[in-house]
C-alpha cells in the first residue's frame, strides 16, 4: 500500500505523535487559503508523489522552475507561485526514473527551524519477509548519500 506524506502524518497525528501542521491541496487556487490557515512566516510546499528524493528532484517542464519538489516559501505569494509551478507538472527523482510522475497534489506545511535531522523508516524486507526498522542520526534528505558513504551510521533492526 502506498500512502502520501500528508496521509501518513494524519495517521501519526491521530495516535498523538507530534507533527507539523499542514494542508493537502489539489488545485493551485487553494494554496492561498491553505497558507493563510497555517499562518507562516515560513511554509514548505511539498510535492506528493509515491517516490523518494522529491526535494532533490527536478521538473521536466521549464515552466515548473528549476527548483525541486520540496520548496521553502517566505510569503503567501511564494506559496501560490510554487503551487502553480508544481501542480500538473512532472517531477523526476532517482526513484521515478526519467519518466517521472505528475504532481497532482501538494502538502503545504508549517516551516520549522531544523536543528538536527534524523531518519527513521519502517519497511518490509523482501529477503526475510519481515518488517525492519531503519534508523540513523545522519538522516533526512540525504539518507541515500549516508548509506553509500558511511553505511555504519545506519542501523537496521
From TrEMBL:
User: What are the GO MF terms of this UniProt record?
Assistant: ATP binding; metal ion binding; succinate-CoA ligase (ADP-forming) activity
Q: Which PROSITE patterns match?
A: ATP_GRASP (PS50975)
Which domain of life does the protein's organism represent?
Bacteria
Q: Which InterPro entries match?
A: ATP-grasp, ATP-grasp_succ-CoA_synth-type, ATP_grasp_subdomain_1
ATP-grasp domain ranges (all copies): 9-55
Q: Name one GO cellular component term.
A: succinate-CoA ligase complex
Q: What is its EC number?
A: 6.2.1.5
A Pfam family that this protein carries is: ATP-grasp_2
What class does this enzyme belong to in the EC scheme? ligase
Query: Has keyword Hydrolase?
Result: no
List this protein's GO terms for biological process.
succinyl-CoA metabolic process; tricarboxylic acid cycle
Question: What's in the keyword line of the UniProt record?
Answer: ATP-binding, Ligase, Nucleotide-binding
Task: List the SUPFAM superfamilies hit by this protein, alphabetically.
Answer: Glutathione synthetase ATP-binding domain-like (SSF56059)
Classification via PANTHER family: SUCCINATE--COA LIGASE [GDP-FORMING] SUBUNIT BETA, MITOCHONDRIAL, SUCCINYL-COA SYNTHETASE BETA CHAIN
This chain belongs to the protein called: Succinate--CoA ligase subunit beta
Q: Which organism is it from?
A: Hellea balneolensis
